[in-house]
Amino acid sequence: MKILEIREAVASIASPIRNAYIDFSKMTVSVVAVVTDVIRDGKPVIGYGFNSNGRYAARGLLNERFLPRLREAKPDELINDAGDNLDLHKIWSVMMSNEKPGGHGERSVAVGVVDMAIWDAVSKIAGVPLYQHLAHTYGDGKADDSVFVYAAGGYYYSGKDDSQLRAEMRRYLDLGYSVVKMKIGGASLDEDMRRIESVLEVVGGGKHLGVDANGRFDLETAVAYAEAMKKYDLFWYEEAGDPLDYQLQAELAKAYPGAMATGEKLFSHQDARNLVRHGGMRPDRDWLQFDCVLSYGLVEYMRTLEAIADEGFSSRNCIPHGGHQLSLNIAAGLKLGGNESYPEVFKPFGGFADGIRVENGRVGLPDAPGIGFEQKTDLIKLMRSITETEPGANTVR
Ligand SMILES: O=C([O-])CC(=O)C(=O)O
Ligand SMILES: [Mg+2]
């Protein structure tokens, strides 16, 4: 078997929302389609991938380095020994040939997009949903039947007041979520506490609310928020300071007895290992949010899971950033603590297969081969349409 073609396109996920650091008015994602010569149900198997959200499309890196390496490789450098499927680990090494270690930058995003598409193709060729493939190949053979998901939103945008924020959170509860998340750090401390208290009235207590500062605070501000929020006993306090400031995180742990969460902007297993070694994160209560697509894909994420295990953390400590179906499959197949979900933003890239409902804060997964994109009509339609145009003509829509 072989890869016949890899198509690349860029899609817009722009919206008027804002977190404490950026607005999303120009946000884009890369989409790739890996076309194989394997026929299933009378059609060639095509794997799809996209790069989560928050880091912009990686078009230059894909076209200058990572896709040419795959196109130039001999077919047997990319397939397994039996010759009947692609080999993710070999493909990863081909993409990363002639890349120095460290300084991960955003090449990890480009590699992650391709990695997602290959996992989709591999599980379609194997004829099973990816979560089952993962449970059989790397786990204990049995995937979780459902996954904890929380509703991320609570963004700032112009003209949004507390009653709109409360109404948004009520919609999430009505959809079946039991935990919601809102942004902090984009307003004054007093204003944010008012916003938090207003949401707490709706969700019924701190255990149902996480807050996310998106890395905005210095140590003094992070601790001031910690002091002010301690009494709420929140689900978690996310990304207080700069993602690479492990000392800040460790100091915060001393001031904040509640659960902390971070890691969405760490893009390699080495960075993840540094966080759990030096960031004061506590396996008995804290959460790790590495998003595999932003961080070299699932091949690397498995190394990350090993690295955190060496420091006393379990896969159940992980609730990845990004709200995409790849992490949902990983959560079920490799037994993570859950997954993020964005019921109202980053459409159609976030969300679940059509007809799958959230119940008591948990979702099931579709029973079809692959990641489940074909079972999410709006997403597959978009990914097909932008990757089926003439090469080079694929534009942001
Ligand atoms: O606002 C963002 O960039 C997304 C984010 O942090 C999250 O989902 O945790
Ligand atoms: Mg976040």
Spell out the blueprint of helices and strands.
Blueprint: E1 3-12, E2 28-40, E3 43-50, H1 59-72, H2 88-95, H3 107-126, H4 130-137, E4 147-152, H5 162-175, E5 180-183, H6 189-203, E6 209-212, H7 219-229, E7 236-238, H8 246-255, E8 260-262, H9 269-278, E9 287-288, H10 297-310, H11 325-333, E10 339-341, E11 362-363, H12 377-387
Parallel strand pairs: 4-5, 4-10, 5-6, 6-7, 7-8, 8-9
Antiparallel strand pairs: 1-2, 2-3, 4-11
Magnesium ion is lined by residues 212, 214, 238-239, 264, 321.
Domain Mandelate racemase/muconate lactonizing enzyme C-terminal: 162-259
Protein name: Mandelate racemase/muconate lactonizing enzyme family protein
Pfam families: MR_MLE_C
Write out key terms for the chains shown.
single chain, 397 residues, alpha/beta, Enolase-like, domain 1, TIM Barrel, 2 domains, eight-stranded mixed sheet, three-stranded antiparallel sheet, 11 strands, 15% strand, binds oxaloacetate ion, binds magnesium ion, Mandelate_racemase_C, Mandelate racemase/muconate lactonizing enzyme family protein, Enolase-like_N, D-tartrate_dehydratase
Query: Helical stretch count?
Result: 12
C-alpha end-to-end distance: 33 Å
Radius of gyration: 20 Å
* CATH homologous superfamily caption of the largest domain: Enolase-like C-terminal domain
Give the topology string: H per helix, E per strand. Answer: EEEHHHHEHEHEHEHEHEHHEEH
Give the DSSP E fraction (strand runs of 2 or more residues).
5-15%
The kinds of small molecule bound in this structure are: oxaloacetate ion, magnesium ion
In total, the number of domains comes to 2
- Tell me the helix content: 25-40%
- Sequence stretches where pLDDT stays below 50 over 5 or more residues: none
Secondary-structure-derived class: alpha/beta
CATH topology of the largest domain, by name, is TIM Barrel
Second-tier CATH architecture of the largest domain: Alpha-Beta Barrel
CATH class identity of the largest domain: Alpha Beta
Task: Count the E strands.
Answer: 11
Organism: Hoeflea ulvae
InterPro entries: D-tartrate_dehydratase (IPR034611), DgoD-like (IPR034593), Enolase-like_C_sf (IPR036849), Enolase-like_N (IPR029017), Enolase_C-like (IPR029065), Mandelate_racemase_C (IPR013342)
Protein name: Mandelate racemase/muconate lactonizing enzyme family protein
Domain Mandelate racemase/muconate lactonizing enzyme C-terminal: 162-259
